[in-house]
Design goal:
The chain is an all-alpha fold. It starts with a helix and ends with a helix. About 80% of the residues lie in helices and about 0% in strands. The protein is built from four helices and no strands. The chain is elongated.
Length: about 90
C-alpha cells in the first residue's frame, strides 16, 4: 500500500505542476498563448475560462475527497491532452 501511494505521488505531482502552470499562463495571457489559441480558431477570452478550469481541476486532484470529482478532473485532463496531441499532428 505504501509503494502504491509513492508511485501515485511521483506521477501526480509533476502532472499537477505542469497543468497548474499551463492554467496560470492561460489566466495571465502569457505572450504566446493568445497566438496559439487564435490559431486554433478560438477567442482569446476562452483562455481565462480554460485556465481557471485547469487550476480548479488540479485542486480537485490534490484534495483527498470526493473521488468522483477526481475522476472527472482526470477525464477532463485526458481530453485536454488528446486535444493538444490532435493539434500537434494537424
Amino acid at each position: 500500500m505504501k509503494m502504491r501511494f509513492v508511485i501515485y505521488w511521483i506521477a501526480t505531482g509533476p502532472f499537477c505542476f505542469a497543468i497548474r502552470s499551463a492554467g496560470v499562463l492561460n489566466v495571465i495571457r502569457f505572450e504566446r498563448e493568445p497566438v496559439s489559441i487564435s490559431a486554433l480558431g478560438y477567442s482569446v477570452y476562452l483562455m481565462t475560462i480554460l485556465g481557471v478550469a485547469k487550476i480548479f481541476g488540479v485542486t480537485a486532484l490534490l484534495t483527498p475527497k470526493p473521488p468522483l470529482l477526481k475522476e472527472w478532473a482526470y477525464a477532463r485532463f485526458v481530453l485536454i491532452c488528446l486535444g493538444y496531441r490532435h493539434h500537434m499532428l494537424s
